[in-house]
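Just scan my protein:

. . .
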Amino acid sequence: MTGPDLQVLRPASVAEALSLAGEGASQLVAGGTALQLGWAKGLPKPRRLIDIGRIACLKGIQPADDGFRIGALTTLGALERDRAIGENLPLLAAAVRATAGPAVRNLATLGGNVAGRTGCLLPALLAIDAKLEIVSPAGRAVVPLAQWLADAPSAALIETIIVPPQPTAARWTHRKVGLRAAFTPSVAGVAGLIETADDLVTIARLAASGGGEAARLGRAEALLVGRRLQEIDWAELHAEILEEAPAIDDAWRSDRYRRSVVANALVFGLGGKLSQGAHSPRRRTVPSGNPPAEILVSRSEIGARWHQRPDVAPKIAGRLEYLTDHREPAMLVARIRRAGIPHARIVCIDTSAAEALPGVAAVVTHRDIAGSNASALSCRISLHCASTRSAMSATPLLPLPLLTRRRPNGRLLLSGSNTSRCQL
């Protein structure tokens, strides 16, 4: 149990997991990394979590006649460290390295990345034509990943991801665009693979995600198949990708911007060029020639400007022990309960559910600390941080309007507690 209304069940087999999932009000979970992100965004919690992490047959990487069979519970860290994956599936290996950070990759699973339908690895898996072996009460089936994504979500459990070998001579690209090079949410993600015979494109698979679900770009692929590499009209391909690429529109980035990122990344990643006169979505002429090369931030490229912090290597390898990792006998761990919305007034605080949980030593609120406090609640517990946070999730909050201020340049500045500022 992780709270008064949330159960965690741990089946020992796939059949048992399917039986429990069929009872309703349940959600399958493995590494739980995406689940925590969803809850942080305010998504509803199920009454029961079905932890499938103990089902041994869902783990492991096995070479096969049709490529590699990767168990759904195989972690991204295991994929990253597997030499055979790196040598035979370089596109997938590049995508894994660009996903989250080492600590998260050691928890996150390939099946979980796929099952959420918005995972960073989906464009790469689509580009290498992966298939899913799924099991449901009706039986077991193998379906192409592209078809599975296009179909409506079902109660089937992903058992195995089947990945064919990547042709050694294939031209491929992968790019995840975010605010940083790694460990950052994706603005857009792309992957593309082109196979040729006598310089003629025989197979083209292009896939993209513009901040939401990923999809193959069938019309763009058709523009490549049957053409010689030197005869590809990259401007035409760019324009088609702008029309076809999936993208979401939100308060931070427009769908038009995301599609532009996707089109640029695929065209230039596959070796294409845009001549003078090609147009972006805003109809601005692209300067003649190609854009300046990206600056590769690495010690080998900018050695004279490079300063290496002493903690970089253990951080990258996931070996650095942070202060929050330190434990002592009988040590208490504090968890701060924060408001889940930008600007609100706390109506009341009921700590009874948190205090009733096993292992909780104290629940501290503003009543216990004199003066003005930035945090509404601090829970001091033993090792039940998630449990206590769940128990306190029902704290009533009265939403308040965002604070706004118009700058001299006419832009509107929005701000609120626990949020970054945003200019409109």
